[in-house]
Amino acid sequence: MSGQAGKVKLFETKKIRAEWDAESEKWWFSVVDVVAVLTESADASAYWRKLKQRLKAEGNETVTNCHGLKMRAADGKARLTDVADTEQILRLVQSIPSKRAEPFKLWLAQVGSERLDETVDPELSIDRAIQNYRRLGYSENWINQCIKSIEVRKALTDEWDKSGVRRGQEYAALTDLMSKVWAGMTTREYM
């Protein structure tokens, strides 16, 4: 794992240790820190051990997919702690019976409902994207250009599909090649 070591995210006044992995382009969060914030348990480590046992017994894959990463502890030493990515953390939130977890659970239910609505009416996802761009402060001109570039990208990938190019690695290789010609760097370097 490479990237920004020792970053701390704040939730209200509570600290959650986090590490950015540039290779996978994911944040990894300390599970014990998240549990401490959501449960206000006197011993978040013990709470997590017990929750982990229960989830394993239920066959919950989130626990299986958590792995250890050395993070700086309160005493300043790097200690191995269970970490999870954003998706895994959101799954864990659903498993924690706590008043503090309830707003997250409501938000997850709302987002899930919105995504299901978008499967019935895909135009809703475009409207959501435009609203998010506006919320982030992008100009109407920039938003329109972005939507047009999505159209162009779709036409390009349709042509790749017709030519037998396989999604995944072959798409990535072609995208990198185009980026290299256009910007002089790979897609990852450009981002």
List the helices and strands and how they pair.
Blueprint: E1 7-11, E2 14-21, E3 26-30, H1 31-39, H2 44-58, H3 61-65, E4 67-72, E5 78-84, H4 86-95, H5 102-120, H6 123-135, H7 140-162, H8 169-183, H9 187-190
Antiparallel strand pairs: 1-2, 2-3, 3-5, 4-5
Helix pairs in contact: 1-2
Largest sheet: 5 strands, antiparallel
Strand content: 15-25%
Helical proportion?
A: 55-70%
Total helical segments? 9
Number of domains: 2
Q: Could you give the order of strands across the largest sheet?
A: 1-2-3-5-4
Mean pLDDT: 84
Distance between the termini: 19 Å
The global form is globular
The low-confidence runs, each spanning 5 or more residues with pLDDT under 50, are: none
Indicate the radius of gyration in whole angstroms.
21 Å
Structure in words:
- 14% of the residues are buried.
- This protein has helices spanning 31-39, 44-58, 61-65, 86-95, 102-120, 123-135, 140-162, 169-183, 187-190; strands at 7-11, 14-21, 26-30, 67-72, 78-84.
- It folds into two domains: 7-118, no CATH class; 123-190, no CATH class.
- Helix 1 (31-39) crosses helix 2 (44-58).
- The longest helix is centred in the last third of the chain and has 23 residues, at 140-162.
- It is α+β, with helices and mostly antiparallel strands.
- It has a five-stranded antiparallel beta sheet.
- A hairpin with a 4-residue loop joins strand 2 and strand 3 (26-30).
- The radius of gyration is 21 Å and the shape is globular.
Using brief descriptors, characterize the structure shown:
191 residues, alpha+beta, 5-stranded antiparallel β-sheet, 9 helices
